[in-house]
Amino acid sequence: MQISPPFGYKEVVPFLKTQKVRLPAPGQFPEFVLRGNAIPISLAEYQAASRDYPIVFTSGDDGRTFATVAVLGISAAENLFYTAGAWAPGVYIPAYARRYPFCMAKVSVNRVERADRLICVEKSFIDDGGESMFDGKGVPSAKWTEVERLLSEYEADLERGREMCSILADYGLLEPFSMQAKLKGQENAPMQVTGMHRVAEKKLGNLNAAQIKNLMRKGILPRIYMHLMSLENFGRLLERKAARQAAA
User: Fold this and answer.
1) Which of 12, 77, 124, 200 is most buried, by CB atoms within 10 Å?
2) pLDDT tens, 140-159?
């Protein structure tokens, strides 16, 4: 059996009821969140995430498949929403960061990927001095009930997000774009963010009635407009970066 850890995780193992886990302290997030300029989001997170972050589409296989991410920074290894040991007040924290160190991982048996996912935990967080998620009789704690609900609901929603991305690509709606900008008063080379895709709004008018109906039926059409409106948040990112540099 081979377990494929999700993006950012190092080594995950199946979670057992008998294991104790060292849970992150409030405001503590994994290194890949603190040093990453983008984080995956699911379909249900669009509305909350679009208020704070630019939402874009990315592909790791030359456009064969796409995923939705919230952009956290302008430069590589930059999260402009985390400073002084805390996430920015009042800003939505994506579930991908909140579920750590747990996850739902892909499992392959004899090199064949199984359809179901396995609840796993980052191996380095298994600690005899950590917190028990189940009591001696196997009854889950309130904390574990909350974590398990987050994991199952989030994984199901990620699948719906993958379906949405597949439909957008199939309809030819995604186009590559980049963002280039300079901070005020700085003469250095402009900053550039690449590798992103967005919905080409003009192409929506080329869809037929059945395609439009499908986008509406699956709840994709409103998320297209949430995504397009969220691109205005690149301006907010620049403001955050300028404020951070001014305070340095």
Assistant:
1) 12
2) 999 999 999 999 999 999 99
